[in-house]
């Protein structure tokens, strides 16, 4: 038989398993992709395919119903503006990935004229849609998006978050500071070169102007430093904001008094420059990769509304938070079970992949309890809610105190420790100098006192952490390791134990190794392929993709028995494919992984074993991680893989059958013994452990998929770089140590000059930018070199 | 030399205009999305093609 060359779906680029769906010489992998193509071609939007090859996302997933969006209560939470003619709504669409997406999504009104205008924000994967509600309803908009392959992800958490997002004014503040800094520099230059006596009146004028420029910088751009310093002092915390605020204040007062009492030059140039550089540092530090959400809990993954069956047997949509104990709910194909519930009616095959990472659906019979978080695959089922949403087995985790208390005191950053010592030393030195000079010359004493506070203002110190960390963050980002913020780098450097989750973390979620017990001849391959292709059961699909494209042969009387297998007639032979009992009539109890048995006619052919596939290089990762790290494995699964895993983990460090709460408790217990733990997991069941750990890393094979709240998100393909990431984070922290040393030396020089009371504004104006530039270039170059050393950049 | 007062006044006013222009643009959301416009400008608006060619792999 001829092996066909693999054809790629014209829409999404997946390999076509069947050859049947064809139109205009183009093949499609599934009906969904074909339908999107038809809609676009009929609306004359074929250009979509011209911009990029295979721009679509696969449409093999089943459609969802959006009728709940028309409930006024839910609608009001989603839309941002509404009047008679126009409604504005923002949707988060994970499928946005290329220029074709932008092109198509901004031309939706050619498909439906009820849509007025669309705006895509590519990095946020968000589209703002303006539409006329008299022509098209919100649910129709969502359905339209879904029909062209851009299903919006609607969750209440994301909506709520949007409203909370306060617009920060950092950019305008930098603009004002930069504007004033530039002008003050211009006005200060004449003074640097010295003004002749004849030009004295210019000097006074320039000073006056400089003071005017300082006022908005201090009162608008720099006001946050005063606020934070005050706030921290009130809470008994001494951090870097205190010397900064003190320095700013003293500089401003001295500049004012220099003008009023005609004492010569003030510090206007240093003052504006200081605030400008500090704000730039803040900006760099804040520049996070905001298109990823690190704060997700179960709410962003649970449905917004649930279909509830009322006493009059009517279906109504009820917002999730209004779901009560005892409600009868209807869960359709591909919908998520929102609360712990008892199965009343229907065939339940629950996919817990979001919860555990295990992609094999679990069968449940009527009367059994189904825990929240599973996704129904198959026909609709009816359930009775037995626990409110927030109290369920899985969601109850979020009531744990790990989620309540802010995560501040995890690991004190190096800079916060140093700045405390620094502040205390600064106060002692400056007051000491003041007391030393006071009996001899109070003016000189005051002069020296203020000069110390000015020159010691830790500008370079405050900048070294943001610049190093921002550089480190971008190195991580290039390697598909996305950190929530810069503090995470220090957390990574501080850990000494690593805990792995099994399913989806050390194994690849959804990907299985399929093996057949015997050898298969080509004729059998064709038969099995053609039967399996008809089934939507995940195991059948895995087998058909394992066998690849085979020649189409005629099968008759195909019949699928849920939970057992399928039968069909090929020629005159009855073929049975399915569970051991279904095919052979015997029960096999010691199966370690799902098996699919095959019988053709009276001949038993053998079985397919579907194993979880471990990530490649797993043993290499673990041997590469330095020996001083303890490694553990926590799995919710049974110990079926214990044998294979004990090669890479110590046997006593392997723990199986761990509930989400067990995982959290394990980490908590270890932390009590001063162990700094990094948790690497993927599912909602790891959410508690991720939160409790000192550095929680969520692993995902598809970066747009749901990941539970964590400190960092790691692309599964980059897991093998983990040892390098750890070493690099240590180097980054070392760079910060060195840069602190450099900036402290600058301060030392400055302070020793200032103690004599001889500090001129010119020296301050030189030291401040010089130290800043040294620190910025040192940290950037050193971080770059460290990344190179650890082969994280080429 | 006293013309310097005038010139400095001019330069400050000019710079203020730029600062205000920046504020205006920031307020209008010019800095909200710094990536998408760079893609959008490269997309042709007119060429709606009925039957696209199969792209080469």
UniProtKB/TrEMBL annotation, chain A:
PANTHER family: ATP7, ISOFORM B, CATION-TRANSPORTING P-TYPE ATPASE-RELATED. It comes from the Bacteria. GO terms for cellular component: plasma membrane. This is HAD family hydrolase. InterPro entries: ATPase-cat-bd, ATPase_P-typ_cyto_dom_N, ATPase_P-typ_P_site, ATPase_P-typ_TM_dom_sf, ATPase_P-typ_transduc_dom_A_sf, ATPase_P-type_domA, HAD-like_sf, HAD_sf. Keywords: Cell membrane, Hydrolase, Ion transport, Magnesium, Membrane, Metal-binding, Phosphoprotein, Translocase, Transmembrane, Transmembrane helix, Transport. It is a multi-pass membrane protein. The chain crosses the membrane at residues 170-193, 205-226, 238-261, 267-284, 421-439, 451-476, 735-756, 762-787. GO terms for molecular function: ATP binding; ATP hydrolysis activity; copper ion binding; P-type divalent copper transporter activity. It is found in: Cell membrane. GO terms for biological process: copper ion homeostasis. It holds the Pfam family E1-E2_ATPase. Belongs to the cation transport ATPase (P-type) (TC 3.A.3) family. Type IB subfamily. Its main location: membrane. Residues 8-80 form the Putative metal-binding domain. Residues 303-395 form the P-type ATPase A domain.
From TrEMBL, chain B:
The keyword Nucleus does not apply. InterPro entries: Cyt_oxidase_maturation_cbb3. The keyword GTP-binding does not apply. Keywords: Membrane, Transmembrane, Transmembrane helix. The chain crosses the membrane at residues 6-24. It comes from the Bacteria. Pfam families: FixS (PF03597). Coiled coil: none annotated. This is Cbb3-type cytochrome oxidase assembly protein CcoS. It comes from Pedobacter cryophilus. The lineage of its organism: Bacteria, Pseudomonadati, Bacteroidota, Sphingobacteriia, Sphingobacteriales.
């Amino acid at each position: 038989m001829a092996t066909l060359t693999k054809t790629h779906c014209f829409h999404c680029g997946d390999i076509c398993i069947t050859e049947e769906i064809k139109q205009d010489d183009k093949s499609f992998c599934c009906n969904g992709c074909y339908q999107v193509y038809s809609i676009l071609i009929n609306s004359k939007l074929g250009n979509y395919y011209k911009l990029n090859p295979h721009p679509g996302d696969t449409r093999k997933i089943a459609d969802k119903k959006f009728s709940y969006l028309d409930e006024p209560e839910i609608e009001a939470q989603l839309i941002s503006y509404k009047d008679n003619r126009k409604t504005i709504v923002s949707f988060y669409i994970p499928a946005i990935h290329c220029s074709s997406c932008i092109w198509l999504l901004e031309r939706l009104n050619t498909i439906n004229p009820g849509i007025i205008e669309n705006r895509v924000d590519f990095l946020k994967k968000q589209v703002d849609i303006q539409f006329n509600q008299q022509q098209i309803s919100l649910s129709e908009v969502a359905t339209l998006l879904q029909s062209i392959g851009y299903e919006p992800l609607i969750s209440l958490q994301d909506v709520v978050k949007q409203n909370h997002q306060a617009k920060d004014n950092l950019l305008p503040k930098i603009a004002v500071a930069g504007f004033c800094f530039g002008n003050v520099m211009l006005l200060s230059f004449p003074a640097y070169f010295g003004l002749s006596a004849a030009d004295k009146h210019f000097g006074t004028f320039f000073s006056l102007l400089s003071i005017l420029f300082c006022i908005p910088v201090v009162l608008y751009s720099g006001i946050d430093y005063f606020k934070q310093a005050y706030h921290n002092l009130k809470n008994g915390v001494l951090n870097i904001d205190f010397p900064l605020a003190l320095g700013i204040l003293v500089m401003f007062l001295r500049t004012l008094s220099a003008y009023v009492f005609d004492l010569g030059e003030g510090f206007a140039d240093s003052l504006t420059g200081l605030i400008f550089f500090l704000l730039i540092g803040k900006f760099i530090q804040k520049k996070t990769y905001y298109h990823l959400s690190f704060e997700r809990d179960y709410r962003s993954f649970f449905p917004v509304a649930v279909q509830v069956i009322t006493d009059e047997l009517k279906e109504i949509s009820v917002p999730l938070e209004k779901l009560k104990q005892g409600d009868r709910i209807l869960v359709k194909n591909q919908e998520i079970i929102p609360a712990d519930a008892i199965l009343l009616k229907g065939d339940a095959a629950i996919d817990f992949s979001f919860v555990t990472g295990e992609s094999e659906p679990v069968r449940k019979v009527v009367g059994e309890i189904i825990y929240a978080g599973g996704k129904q695959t198959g026909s609709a089922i009816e359930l009775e809610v037995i626990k409110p949403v927030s109290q369920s087995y899985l969601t109850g985790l979020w009531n744990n105190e790990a989620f309540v208390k802010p995560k501040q005191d995890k690991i004190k950053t190096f800079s916060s420790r140093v700045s405390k010592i620094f502040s205390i030393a600064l106060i002692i030195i400056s007051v000491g100098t003041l007391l030393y000079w006071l009996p001899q010359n109070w003016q000189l004493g005051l002069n020296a006192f203020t000069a110390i506070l000015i020159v010691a203002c830790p500008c370079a110190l405050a900048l070294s952490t943001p610049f190093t960390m921002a550089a480190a963050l971008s190195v991580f980002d290039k390697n598909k390791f996305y950190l929530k913020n810069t503090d995470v780098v220090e957390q990574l450097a501080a850990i000494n134990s690593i805990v792995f989750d099994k399913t989806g973390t050390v194994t690849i979620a959804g990907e299985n190794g399929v093996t057949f017990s015997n050898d298969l001849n080509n004729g059998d391959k064709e038969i099995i392929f053609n039967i399996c292709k008809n089934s939507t059961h995940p195991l059948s699909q895995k087998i058909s993709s394992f066998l690849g494209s085979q020649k189409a042969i005629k099968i008759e009387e195909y019949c699928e028995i849920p939970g057992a297998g399928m039968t069909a007639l090929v020629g005159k032979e009855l073929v049975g494919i399915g569970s051991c009992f279904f095919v052979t009539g015997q029960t096999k109890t010691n199966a370690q992984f799902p098996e699919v048995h095959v019988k053709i006619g009276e001949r038993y052919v053998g079985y397919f074993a579907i194993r979880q596939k471990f990530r490649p290089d797993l043993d290499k990762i673990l041997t590469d991680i330095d020996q001083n790290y303890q490694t553990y494995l926590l799995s919710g699964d049974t110990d079926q893989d214990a044998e294979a895993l004990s090669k890479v983990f110590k046997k006593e460090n392997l723990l199986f059958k761990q509930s989400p709460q067990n995982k959290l408790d394990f980490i908590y217990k270890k932390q009590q013994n001063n162990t700094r733990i990094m948790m690497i997991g993927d599912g909602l069941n790891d959410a508690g452990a991720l939160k409790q750990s000192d550095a929680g890393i969520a692993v995902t094979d598809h970066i747009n998929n749901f990941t539970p709240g964590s400190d960092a998100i790691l692309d599964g393909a980059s897991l093998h770089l983990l040892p390098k990431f750890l070493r690099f984070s240590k180097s980054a922290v070392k760079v910060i140590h060195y840069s602190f040393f450099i900036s402290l030396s600058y301060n030392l020089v400055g302070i020793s000059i200032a103690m004599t009371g001889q500090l001129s504004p010119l020296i301050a104006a030189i030291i401040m930018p010089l130290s800043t530039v040294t620190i910025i270039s040192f940290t950037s170059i050193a971080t770059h070199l460290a990344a190179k050393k650890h082969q994280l950049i080429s | 030399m006293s013309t310097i007062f005038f010139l400095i006044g001019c330069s400050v006013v000019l710079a203020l205009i730029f600062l205000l222009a920046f504020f205006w643009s920031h307020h209008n959301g010019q800095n909200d999305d710094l990536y998408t416009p760079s893609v959008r400008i490269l997309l042709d608006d007119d060429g709606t093609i009925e039957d696209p060619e199969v792209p080469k792999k």
